[in-house]
Design brief:
- It is a single chain.
- The protein is an alpha+beta fold and 258 residues long.
- Helices cover 17% and strands 44% of the residues.
- A hairpin with a 2-residue loop joins strand 11 and strand 12.
- The relative contact order is 0.17.
C-alpha cells in the first residue's frame, strides 16, 4: 500500500501514538531512524505532533501528563464505529477505561483503556483524521502484537470488545515465537496476541515498523542513543529486531518478506 487513503474497519489497528517525556528527543530519534517529518497535531491533552511519511500521517508522538513516572511507550489504537459503545464493551468484558470517551478537536473521538491483564490500548473513532495513511511500507506500521501471559483470555476480550474473530495459529518455527492467536476482521488478519512467560514484563502491545534492512536499522538505533533488546533474527513474518528508544520505550522493526 503506497500513499492511498486507508479505511479502517472496526477492530483494525488504525493509529499508533508514543507517550514520551521528551518530545524533542523522540522526534530526533524516530525522525532519523524511520525517515519521518513532523507537523503539529491536536493538543487537547498536551503537546502532540503527527509523524509524516511522504507527507502522509503514520504515527503520533505526545508528552506524558505532568508528574507521570511511567516509562515511554507506544499505544496501538483500534478503529471503532462508535467510541462510546466500544468503551462500554471494554467494561462489559472486564477491562478498564482510563480516559474518555472524549473528542480530539474535529479529528475524532478517543478512548484509552486497559484489557483484563492491564495492557494499554486505544480506541479511535475517526472523523477528519481516520488514522494512518500508509501501512506495511518502510517507515510505516507493519504490525501490532500483544505479549501477555494469558493469550487465550486476551483473545476473548478483544474479540468481544470489537467483534473480531480470534484464531489460534499453533506454534511457529522460531524459538522466540510461542503459541499465539491472531485477531481477524472480515477474514483478514489484523493483529497478534503472543503467549509470554509468566516471568515476562507486564503485558503490552508492541508496534512493529517496516524497514528495508532490520540489521542496519538496529545498528542505527544504537548510534542514535537507543538499544537492541533482541538482535535481528529471521522469522516466518520477516527479519525482526526488538528495540528500545532513547527513553527505553519498546518497539520493533521488521523487514517484511518479499
Amino acid at each position: 500500500m503506497t500513499g492511498t487513503e486507508l479505511r479502517h474497519a472496526q477492530g483494525t489497528p488504525c493509529w499508533v501514538s508514543l507517550l514520551t517525556h521528551d518530545l524533542g528527543a523522540a522526534e530526533r530519534f524516530y525522525g532519523a531512524l524511520l525517515g519521518w517529518t513532523f507537523t503539529p497535531g491536536p493538543e487537547d491533552l498536551g503537546p502532540y505532533v503527527r509523524a509524516l511519511l511522504g507527507g502522509l500521517p503514520v504515527a503520533g508522538l505526545g508528552v506524558m501528563p505532568p508528574g507521570a513516572e511511567r516509562p515511554a511507550d507506544w499505544i496501538t489504537y483500534f478503529a471503532a464505529d462508535d467510541a462510546d459503545e466500544a468503551a462500554q464493551r471494554v467494561r462489559e468484558h472486564g477491562g478498564t477505561v482510563a480516559l474518555g470517551p472524549l473528542d480530539s478537536d474535529s479529528a475524532g473521538r478517543l478512548v484509552v483503556a486497559a484489557d483484563l491483564d492491564g495492557a494499554v490500548f486505544g480506541v479511535w473513532q475517526g472523523r477528519d483524521h481516520p488514522g494512518f495513511r500508509r501501512q506495511r511500507e518502510p517507515g510505516a506500521v507493519a504490525w501490532s502484537e500483544l505479549s501477555t501471559p494469558a493469550a487465550t483470555g486476551a483473545a476473548r476480550f478483544y474479540a468481544g470488545t470489537f467483534g473480531s474473530a480470534a484464531v489460534e495459529t499453533g506454534r511457529a518455527q522460531v524459538e522466540r515465537f510461542e503459541d499465539h492467536v491472531v485477531l481477524k476482521v472480515g477474514g483478514h488478519t489484523v493483529a497478534g496476541i503472543r503467549q509470554a512467560p509468566a516471568t515476562a514484563e507486564r503485558p503490552r502491545w508492541r508496534v512493529f515498523f517496516a524497514v528495508t534492512d532490520a540489521d542496519d536499522t538496529a545498528a542505527r538505533a544504537v548510534a542514535l542513543g537507543g538499544r537492541v533488546e533482541s538482535a535481528p533474527a529471521d522469522s516466518p513474518y520477516g527479519r525482526i529486531a526488538l528495540l528500545r528508544d532513547t527513553e527505553d520505550g519498546p518497539f520493533a522493526v521488521v523487514r517484511l518478506p518479499d
